[in-house]
Amino acid sequence: MEDFNLHYRFLNWRRRIREIREVRAVRHQERYKRILVDGDILSYHGNSDEVGCYVAPRSLTKENNYFEVCIVDTGVRGTIAVGLVPQYYKLDHQPGWLPHSVAYHADDGKLFNGNGVGQQFGPKCLAGDRIGCGVHPESFDRGMATVFFTRNGKEVGSVVMAMSPDGLFPAVGMHSLGEEVRIDLQVEWGLDDDDSVMMVDSHEDEWGRLHDVKVCGTLLEYVGKGKSIMDVGLAQARHALSTRSHYFEVEIVDPGEKCYIALGLARKDYPKNRHPGWSRGSVAYHAADSDDCVDAAEVKSKQRHVRNIMYFNDEEEEDEGEEMEQEYDGKKVTVFFTRNGKIIGRKEAPVPSGGFYPTIGMLSNGEKVKVDLHPLSG
Question: Domain 204-372, CATH 2.60.120.920 — does that match?
Fold first, then answer.
């Protein structure tokens, strides 16, 4: 009988351990409803008469007390909410609508603090804007949380609320077709003593030149007029490619109206209103219409309007005389392009003085790309 009791208690103990492990596993899972999750991209996946909500797998802590959401697309109504909620928040309600939750709503700039009536809090937010939310570190020792919100790196305001026993979890709500955001749960922030501006990792320091292109994390968005060939938007990396960093990747998030998107390499002083590949000291792949990638050196002077080819230009232009020969280091490299991981074309090109810089060009409304300047592959 005693052996049976010991065996019974042993089984209960094992079952209890398994239950604890299962609970812990659940606590480390993200929760969402009517939201499509693709890596760090969240998009609304409902029928616009029901709320979609995403709750992160971990609550904010004293060491990791801030997160940020970049609006990729406002969709039909832009009803995007960013805030903090309890762990088991009802996923058919926007953050901030129910008790013990708070959120900044992008469509009207209102703060919702535990009820369905919002108060005017900050500016409205559009595509490309970054909304941040955090808890001041000292709050974790007091039981009352001072929650603050930021817009594009600058603090909008703060509110004091009770700290939930399970913690406060980052949450994003959406409520109309087409809404899409990029969430960063690891972004760091600090306070600048000079002007009390929130300093966040926006990736803007990776770009040496930006013309008619807005940066939001790793997302680049064309913000130019898109009406003529002179309205090119250009983004050029701060550092040239090297033997240690010789490759970069671009993911087309939105092709825009015409997908006039080009990626390639260019000299540091490349003209801001020229697609990479159009002017000398550059080589590029243009990503519209066709899957082909061919050498365009022979047709560049007559058919510069042709797209979807590899553009290469190392010849003199009429206004640049004989000085061009002095602008190259005398060495050549083989530039290659990939599409979905497979090499689609190569071109030997002389290296301009100072090196080749990763360069992105865009030319039609709505174009958005995600750029990884330091991928592990390649």
Answer: yes
- Residue pLDDT, tens place only, 194-252: 443 444 445 667 888 999 998 887 888 999 999 888 899 999 998 888 877 888 888 88
Domain positions in the chain are 31-200, 204-372
31-200 and 204-372 have identical folds: yes
pLDDT value of residue 3: 56
Class of domain 31-200: mainly beta
SS (H, E, C) the chain: CHHHHHHHHHHHHHHHHHHHHHHHHHHCCCEEECEEEECCEEEECCCCCCCEEEECCCCCCCCCCEEEEEEEEECCCCCCEEEEECCCCCCCCCCCCCCCCEEEECCCCEEEECCCCCEECCCCCCCCCEEEEEECHHHHHCCEEEEEEEECCEEEEEEEEECCCCCCEEEEEECCCCEEEEEECCCCEEECCCCCCEEECCCHHHEEEEECEEEECCEEEECCCCCCCCCCEEEEECCCCCCCCCCCEEEEEEECCCCCCEEEEECCCCCCCCCCCCCCCEEEEECCCCCCCCECCCCCCCCCCCCCCEEEECCCCCCCCCHHHHHEEEEEEEEEEEECCEEEEEEEEEEECCCCEEEEEECCCCEEEEEECCCCCC
* Rounded percentage of the chain residues whose pLDDT exceeds 70: 77
